[in-house]
Amino acid sequence: MRGRTFRAALAAAAVALVVAGCGSSPKNSGTGPIDVVFPILHGPYGEDGTVQGLFELADLPYVGAGVLASALAMDKAMAKVVFAAAGLPQVPFLVVHERDWRADPARVAAEVAERFSFPVFVKPSRLGSSIGINKVKIPDDLGGALDEAFAHDAKALVEQGVEARELECGVLGNDRPETSVVGEVVPGNEFYDFEAKYLDESLQLLIPAPVPDQVAARVRELAARAFGALECEGFARVDFFYLQASGEVLLNEVNTIPGFTPKSMFPLLWSASGLAYPELVARLVELAVQRHAAKKG
Fold first, then answer.
1. Whether the predicted pLDDT of 205 surpasses 90
2. In what order do the strands lie in the sheet containing 178-186?
């Protein structure tokens, strides 16, 4: 297969993959021309650049970040390298590979103890939804936390624990991204883990976040800079730590496919910014079509 036939087959495969990811079975019922794909897929193969590469091969317009930005944002360790190069403030971190931990756990534990004060957070580098993340309060618990992280990924992050509030900001656009009002996540659990995100009914989303104007402005500035540093397009939710005692704002991570139910933070942030859910969807589709039309080659 060549040319249009090859791309048509790829387009059909891409749509079948997206539909299958949504829990339905694709049917050969004469699907019409595809105007745009809206991938609301989380985790590996959904937001790590893999399916985005398929859309590129099929020459399909799609919502959200491209291959490079998706891959970088999904790999938290690589994203931190990019953020550091861009001069964006972050918590201190250490990348730990499973091979190094298995070969000499005492050396790795000593390096963690030298670099950080406890508690620290341990998480898989390339996963989402706070799966496999643990707050480690004493050195003796580091090994178990790393083992859990390595059950999901061969690369883990150790991050300095901080006493902070969790702020989030939505970004929307391609070449000229706009930022939403700032929201705050108040988890019922000790930290914002998987259970707090998806199962804890005591979780609160405060929109707008009750923070000083200068803090909200700083969050919006850093959100736009992080979005640009990864070369994101379409949309993203950027998460921060706000150290209230010092007034410092630290970048946590960029989510290139944020939760998108009507009750999710990203749509709520934009609703509070004057862009209702239907208009937000329409805007994202428009951005995807514009980007596709502007592609060279």
1. yes
2. 204-206, 178-186, 165-173, 234-243, 248-255
Task: Find where tokens 């360790």 sit.
Answer: 77
pTM of the model: 0.85
Structural tokens at position 272: 């509070």
Band of pLDDT at residue 159, cut at 50, 70 and 90: very high
CA-to-CA distance for 248 and 256, rounded, in angstroms? 24
The torsion of the CA quartet 187, 189, 191, 197, rounded to 10 degrees, works out to -60
Q: DSSP H helical segments within 31-90, as ranges?
A: 50-57, 67-74, 76-85
User: E strands along the chain, which residues?
Assistant: 93-97, 120-124, 134-136, 155-160, 165-173, 178-186, 204-206, 234-243, 248-255
Are 163 and 248 a contacting pair, CB within 8 Å?
no
Amino acid at 170: G
Q: Is 107 strand, coil or helix?
A: helix
